[in-house]
Automatic annotation (TrEMBL):
SUPFAM superfamilies linked: Family A G protein-coupled receptor-like
InterPro entries the record matches: GPCR_Rhodpsn (IPR000276), GPCR_Rhodpsn_7TM (IPR017452)
Ion transport is among the record's keywords: no
Alphabetic keyword roster: G-protein coupled receptor, Membrane, Receptor, Transducer, Transmembrane, Transmembrane helix
GO cellular component, one term: plasma membrane
Protein name: G-protein coupled receptors family 1 profile domain-containing protein
UniProt superkingdom: Eukaryota
Taxonomic lineage: Eukaryota, Metazoa, Spiralia, Gnathifera, Rotifera
Membrane topology label: Multi-pass membrane protein
Organism: Adineta ricciae
Transmembrane regions listed in the UniProt entry: 25-52, 64-87, 99-120, 140-163, 209-226, 250-276
Length: 349
């Protein structure tokens, strides 16, 4: 490993050449990562457009969580790939070691928290009969804002200016390019800590331990609730043919999203935690690049899973993409058709 030291005022820059990263794999990361980032951004934008135009957020408050989830995925894709392109032009330590990791982990935590909120909202509809306890549109917006503030406070230690950083350079087209931050040291509130310390806490805490347990447990409880409600309806109606397809599509969406989360994202957190403990630096090797591409793929998968699990979502998406005028007419007609009902209800009172 070739090391060069550059000393500036109160800052130590340690530039290390990560020789265990293949040049072909680096090229694959930038090419395939670019394709996945473009596709994932378009898919998440389609998800936002779908639930904003085709779904009534008053009737489906979980749509707010899906919109927030899609926006968090877009920020995650930007932090995982676009920021690496910015390193070609901006190599400041605050961008490389602070802003990048803050955007990466905060967007990832928000993505998983919105998945948990989606599962909890579905559980409340299944288990609770009192409609006053359900999550409404206003409550969903409040929960979304609370989760954003909570994650910003939780991950804000990344935002302090590092005074001691080490970079990892990889070889591409016979030249060394800045790829990532190996480690950095910070001082805040009278304490000093490193980037590896923060990543280790994230890996064994909210990011790879608490949130996966919450997602899996909400899915299990939701499955039990749907089975219980289906059993009660069969007894009440005396038939076996009744199935709540909307609830089943939602549970299938959450379940598949959780499976992709476990297989595509957890390995990256485990690798970073092990590297932070044993090597005192971030993992930058061939395996790390492959796992990072898998993580980018995960944040492209939520909307395709939604299309696979719901025929209603597929038909609404088709209408918005290929028949936008028809969608606008139907939304306007539904608004006008709802006005006489409200007027008649008020007159009857």
């Amino acid at each position: 490993m070739r090391l060069t030291f550059n000393r500036t005022a109160s800052t130590l820059l340690l530039n290390s050449s990560c020789g265990n990263v293949g040049e072909n794999l680096v090229l694959l990361f930038f090419v395939l990562g670019c394709i996945l980032t473009i596709i994932g951004t378009l898919l998440n934008l389609c998800s936002c457009l779908l639930f904003y135009r085709a779904k009534s957020l008053d009737k489906t408050p979980y749509g707010i969580f899906i919109i927030a989830l899609s926006i968090a995925d877009i920020v995650k894709l930007i932090a995982e790939y676009v920021v690496h392109i910015l390193y070609f032009y901006i190599d400041h330590r605050y961008l490389v070691c602070s802003i990048t990791w803050f955007l990466t982990l905060s967007s990832e935590n928000l993505s998983y928290l919105f998945l948990c909120a989606l599962g909890i909202e579905r559980n409340l509809k299944v288990w609770i009969t009192d409609r006053r306890c359900l999550i409404t549109r206003r409550r969903a917006c409040t929960i979304t804002m609370f989760l954003i503030i909570f994650v910003v406070i939780y991950d804000h230690p990344f935002l302090f200016l590092p005074y001691d950083v080490s970079y990892c350079f990889v070889k591409l087209f016979n030249s060394q390019i800045l790829f990532s931050c190996d480690n950095a040291h910070y001082k805040s509130y009278g304490y000093s800590y490193s980037l590896t310390d923060l990543i280790f806490i994230e890996s064994i805490g909210l990011n790879n331990f608490i949130l996966p347990i919450l997602i899996i447990s909400t899915n299990i409880v939701l499955i039990l609730g749907l089975r219980r409600r289906a059993y009660q309806r069969r007894i009440r109606l005396g038939t076996r043919k009744h199935k709540d397809w909307r609830e089943q599509s939602v549970i299938l969406y959450v379940f598949l999203s959780s499976i992709t989360f476990v297989f595509l994202t957890t390995p990256t957190g485990v690798l970073n935690a092990l590297s932070a403990v044993h090597n005192q630096k971030m993992a930058t090797n061939n395996i790390a690049l492959v796992l990072e591409l898998m993580e980018i793929l995960h944040h492209c998968s939520h909307f395709p899973i939604l299309l696979m699990t719901s025929s209603v979502i597929r038909s609404k998406t088709f209408q918005i993409l290929f028949h936008p005028r028809q969608t606008q007419r139907s939304s306007v007609s539904s608004r006008f058709s709802g006005q006489p009902r409200i007027l008649s209800a008020s007159l009857s009172q």
